[in-house]
Amino acid sequence: xxxxxxxxxxxxxxxxxxxxxxxxxxxxxxxxxxxxxxxxxxxxxxxxxxxxxxxxxxxxxxxxxxxxxxxxxxxxxxxxxxxxxxxxxxxxxxxxxxxxxxxxxxxxxxxxxxxxxxxxxxxxxxxxxxxxxxxxxxxxxxxxxxxxxxxxxxxxxxxxxxxxxxxxxxxxxxxxxxxxxxxxxxxxxxxxxxxxxxxxxxxxxxxxxxxxxxxxxxxxxxxxxxxxxxxxxxxxxxxxxxxxxxxxxxxxxxxxxxxxxxxxxxxxxxxxxxxxxxx
DNA sequence: CGCCAGGGCTAGC
DNA sequence: GCTAGCCATGGC
Length: 279
Description:
Elements: E1 2-4, H1 10-14, E2 22-24, E3 30-33, E4 38-44, E5 47-52, H2 58-65, H3 72-79, H4 83-92, H5 102-111, H6 117-131, E6 134-137, E7 140-143, H7 148-151, H8 156-161, H9 168-180, H10 184-187, H11 193-200, H12 208-217, H13 229-238, H14 246-257, H15 261-278
Antiparallel strand pairs: 1-5, 2-3, 3-4, 4-5, 6-7
Helix pairs in contact: 4-15, 5-12, 11-12, 13-15, 14-15
The structure holds a DNA duplex.
């Protein structure tokens, strides 16, 4: 299936550390495990060429996941009012914020703390292989990320065997929270970012960074932004008049980029991690 | 071997 | 309110 790609840079977006269940194939295409299916997607000039084990609403699904229904140009224009952003936005054109499954993102980013992408993916894959639904696509087996009901009674020992380390107890705490607050993840959609952050951080193992990632990469909150070592480094180099700590950066971003502060910080992260490495 | 990974919790000031 | 030390694990 051909889908107008609306400017997306597929590879940059998929390999930016937003999602953990993507493989780059030898032919340059990508295989991604979305919440309810497996897709293979390839960048072809003006189009994305997409195939899947499940063709129902595929176009709609893909456009939603890759955020192709939204015009980023108007965001970029607004952010370009800031001199620094203006300079990096050329590099960031085509970077999209994915719309990932709530539950999967929630658990995945708990695992992400003080961890690295390859290990995060390995743990998520093991959990999925054991508890998720099997899907066959192009003669290969894949496993969807389990639903809450499929892993709600997982033991701490088994989690540990999947390599999540000290985060095992955090996942248990998160699952317990969901048991007593069934609609919690759905309700977050109705809350503003500040309220949602307050609730998410009740859960042990979820702090500001992890909650921001959940809200940005699954709830599409452009006013939620993860501040990590890369962003702090970028700030200390490029905004020397701003103190490079969580609170100061947050305050500055709010004031300067308002409701787009999350996208701005994400661009910064993307630029800092990728463009600079090439030099 | 020691270091670090898109952090967060806890204890001790 | 702030910060140092700690937390599992494995790749380098």
